[in-house]
Design goal:
The chain is α+β, with helices and mostly antiparallel strands. It is 49% helix and 10% strand. It has a single domain (13-397), classed as Cytochrome P450 (Cytochrome p450, Orthogonal Bundle), CATH 1.10.630.10. Helix 10 crosses helix 12. Residues 71, 74, 89-90, 101, 104, 152, 236-237, 240-241, 244-245, 248, 286-287, 289, 314, 341-343, 347, 349-351, 354-355 line the site of protoporphyrin IX containing FE.
């Protein structure tokens, strides 16, 4: 039901916001600033009813209150179908969440990332080799997209060349799926079938990779995880690991392409890169999640009612001047920076070490080999819509 809902442009952001409106997709920051100035939590009747918190405190309160706000639905969509294929841990609440999360932590430790780093560095250089001789490049299509895709494929033990397939599924699930349930179901089924086949292969021929690790992991009852749990977690790792980091690297390059002073400073003072990465994560936080309101509650003085969703905007929290002085400015050596880009509370990102490593290596290798670059005035930058925001077309001039 309710497919292909026709978009009605927003004229009243305070009473009728829509996070898929082109104005939000293009430049959401002034919208959040305006809303935050009026009220910490606003509501829209669109998408069957959604609240939007825009202050850090409100986003934090919701993230920590897993009784009032459930993760059983984490994307705001036009439909709320029955939940048939969960992706633990992100779609689970206590007490089921913790054991599902603990299974996913070991492969993403800082030590594990150190081992993966040389492969990511090689991936970046292989990609740069393809276009460095050209005068222009779409960095989103030719560079930023492939780094997380190939890195996670490498970890899972699936062919890096299947990356285009993963990107297609993620686009269908996170963007087209907001308005079209059939496309979402189709993509989820294709993904499940893909991983089902990978699992079957490994039952006959065990491998040394993340898929086999999950297959061999034991659940809280001491038994191996059932196949649907393994498949759900694998789908989650692909969905969570690709668009997010693609967006974060892309927004960082976009910023450096249009801010030569920061670009030159990073080249002259490479030791500030770790601070710059945190600031890019804060200022251009790609991920906005959702929660379902399960019972009556009060957030930052505003009543919330069950039956509604919450658009949990970590990006808006990161721009709250009550938490970050000069929140609207990108300060690449910002010292105090407790941003919420990786979430807050029990669902905080499993892949933050991987994401940070990929961002660092992607920027280091790019700046080493392409120190001079700018936005190509002949092209257009486009941004993805909905849950994950980042450049999907990033035309740059090299040199
Ligand atoms: C810059 C890149 C990334 C950003 C900004 C990001 C952001 C987030 C955020 C905000 C959450 C919290 C979700 C919630 O509260 O509902 C989350 C959870 C998660 N992320 Fe990431 N993420 C990134 C990269 C990755 C990568 C590379 C992976 C793994 C391959 C990953 C795996 C996960 C998983 C499994 C969860 C669920 C954790 C749980 O439910 O306890 N993420 N991420």
């Amino acid at each position: 039901m309710n497919e292909h809902v026709k978009h009605v442009p927003v004229t009243d952001w305070f009473n009728d916001f829509d996070h898929t409106d082109p104005q939000w997709t293009e430049d959401p920051f002034p919208i959040w600033d305006e809303l935050r100035g009026k009220c910490p939590v606003v509501h829209t009747d669109r998408f069957l009813g959604v609240y939007l918190p825009t202050t850090y405190e409100a986003v934090k309160q919701i993230s920590y209150d897993t009784e009032t706000f459930s993760s059983r639905r984490v994307v705001v969509r036009n439909v709320r179908p029955e939940i048939t294929s969960p992706t633990p841990p992100i779609t689970t609440d206590p007490p089921y969440h913790k054991p599902a999360k603990q299974l996913l932590l070991p492969p993403f430790t800082p030590q594990a990332m150190k081992k993966l780093e040389p492969r990511v560095r090689a991936i970046c250089n292989e990609l740069i080799d393809e276009f460095i001789k050209d005068r222009t490049v779409d960095a989103a299509a030719a560079y930023t997209k492939h780094i997380p895709t190939r890195a996670i494929a490498h970890m899972l033990g699936i062919p890096e060349k299947d990356g285009d397939l993963f990107v297609k599924w993620i686009h269908q699930i996170l963007e087209l799926g907001i308005h079209n349930d059939a496309i979402l179901m189709q993509a989820a089924q294709e993904m499940s079938l893909y991983f089902f086949e990978q699992i079957e292969q490994r039952k006959k021929h065990p491998t040394d990779d993340l898929i086999s690790d999950l297959m061999n992991a034991k659940g809280p009852d001491g038994q191996p995880l059932p196949d649907p749990h393994v498949i759900g977690s694998l789908r989650l790792l692909l969905i969570a690991g690709i668009d997010t980091t693609w967006s974060a690297i892309g927004s960082s390059l976009w910023h450096l392409a249009r801010t030569p002073t920061d670009r030159k400073r990073l080249i002259a003072e490479p030791h500030i890169l770790p601070f710059a990465i945190e600031e890019f994560l804060r200022a251009y936080a790609p991920v906005t999640m959702a929660r379902e309101v399960m019972k009556e509650g009060v957030v930052a003085g505003c009543p919330v009612k069950p039956g509604n969703m919450v658009l949990l905007s970590f990006p808006a929290a990161n721009r709250d001047p009550a938490m970050f002085p000069d929140a609207g400015k990108v300060i690449i050596d910002r010292k105090e920076n407790r941003h919420a880009a990786f979430g807050l509370g029990i669902h905080r990102c499993v892949g933050s070490n991987l994401a940070r490593m990929e961002m660092t290596v992607a920027l280091e290798e790019w700046l080493k080999r392409i120190p001079e670059f700018s936005l190509d005035p002949a092209g257009t930058v486009t941004w993805s819509e909905g849950t994950v925001r980042g450049p999907r077309q990033l035309p740059l001039l090299i040199g």
